[in-house]
Design brief:
alpha/beta, 5 strands, 136 residues, five-stranded parallel sheet, globular
Length: 136
């Protein structure tokens, strides 16, 4: 299973002891493939630095770069499907280009994807994906 993890969810899964940390532990155990682009990695680093600090941001990015179950994607097309927050389109483009099973996000802007039959992108909330991961 391949996923694209929105930054808001990454922030909520990486800290030990967080309710959603099972998602991160499943990633570390190789139970799913995390698909990223350079643009997504830059955003991860920026937000993790703001939310926590530069040390945590660098540690997480290093792990993402070195882990074999991370798929680096270079989308060749921009769909521009999310109009309310165009910055979120990088996650959609990554999901389509990688053939991801899910985008995992709690951002309501991704609900706009339900309006489109193509490309079909399945968005799951973090809590829904947590339940999927716990059954693996």
């Amino acid at each position: 299973m391949k996923i694209v993890l929105d930054t808001n969810c990454l922030v909520n899964v990486i800290m030990p002891g967080s309710y959603n940390n099972d998602v991160w532990q499943a990633f570390r155990a190789g139970k799913y493939i995390l698909c990223v682009t350079n643009e997504i990695l830059y955003e991860y680093h920026e937000i993790l630095t703001k939310r926590y600090n530069n040390i945590i941001a660098n540690t997480v990015l290093k792990e993402l770069i070195e882990t074999p179950n991370v798929e680096r994607v270079n989308p060749s097309f921009r769909f521009n499907l999310i109009t309310a927050d165009p910055d979120d389109n990088k996650f959609v483009d990554c999901a389509v280009a990688s053939g991801a099973t899910y985008i995992v996000s709690n951002d309501h802007h991704f609900q706009e994807l339900k309006l489109y039959k193509f490309p079909q992108v399945d968005v799951r909330s973090l809590i829904d994906f947590l339940e999927i991961v716990r059954k693996l």
